[in-house]
Amino acid sequence: MNKILEKEFFSPQVFRMKVEAPEIARKRKAGQFVIIRVSDAGERIPLTIADANASEGWIELVVQAVGKTTTDLSKLSPGDSLHDLAGPLGRPTHIEKHGTVLMVGGGIGIAPAHPIAQAMKAAGNTVVSILGGRSKELVIMEEKMKAASDEVIIVTDDGSYGMKGMVTDAIQKLIDEGRKIDLVIAIGPPVMMKFVSLLTKKYDIHTLVSLNTIMIDGTGMCGGCRVSVGNESKFVCVDGPEFDGHLVNFDEMMQRLSMYRDQEKESIDHACKLGLR
């Protein structure tokens, strides 16, 4: 079991956990993820590693409580343990010197953007990060992203913090200003990644997206994380999580993500009846 060392809420639904995991902390690379279970009877869910310290033996996970498992996870405290934790999984981000790398993090997607921004900056790139959220309280990890970036642009849907608008508005503004962008990496809600990719395709800017799909085993055997990329079927857990955003079939992916919505609601309703929520 992996002990929770620290826990902090960014907002009522979004929190970070520092978890004891020395082997994963030593081996992980930017872009990789873990799969956890809260209890023996619980489901397996993927979470991207937001930060890690190999010498101290911990990894950091940032979670949004949206379903039963993430809500159960939000109730754990320092000193409690996760039932099991597997990783690091997935292909790490290919890190090299591109020039100017634009990191786009939407909501909880800012967390997995962090280690990639760190690695890209360490490789000698100029890192410009756009952090987006529906409102100010949903813009997380600002100070960490500032440390990992050369420039940070804040965007909120309601204008409560930074620029009012969508992350695509901020990207368009940079393009209109004549800023040279060599690579875009977008991580966040599927619809956000879809529209970022549609925009950058117009300007032929290479764009990577990090997908967070339904996963069970994390080894490519169950097929639950299947996505269409170009004319091929790919498994997010072993072929990704990063893919060319201009080739991903986002509409199909979003449809697959909604497959178990009724079962999720039933599970939450059952927990409420038992007084577990």
Order of adjacent strands in the largest pleated sheet? 6-1-2-5-4-3-7
- Give the overall shape, derived from the CA principal axes: globular
Helix count from the secondary structure assignment: 9
Beginning-to-end CA distance, first to last residue: 24 Å
Q: Which range best describes the helical content: under 10%, 10-25%, 25-40%, 40-55%, 55-70% or over 70%?
A: 25-40%
Strand tally, please? 16
Strand content is: 25-35%
- Average pLDDT score: 90
Query: What is the fourth-level CATH superfamily of the largest domain?
Result: Nucleotide-binding domain of ferredoxin-NADP reductase (FNR) module
Helix-strand topology string = EEHEEEHEEEHEHEEHEHEEEHEHH
Please give the domain count. 3
Structural class by SSE content: alpha/beta
Outline the low-pLDDT stretches.
none
Radius of gyration: 18 Å
Reported by name, the CATH topology of the largest domain is Rossmann fold
Give the CATH architecture of the largest domain.
3-Layer(aba) Sandwich
CATH class (first level) name of the largest domain: Alpha Beta
Question: Largest sheet, if any?
Answer: 7 strands, antiparallel
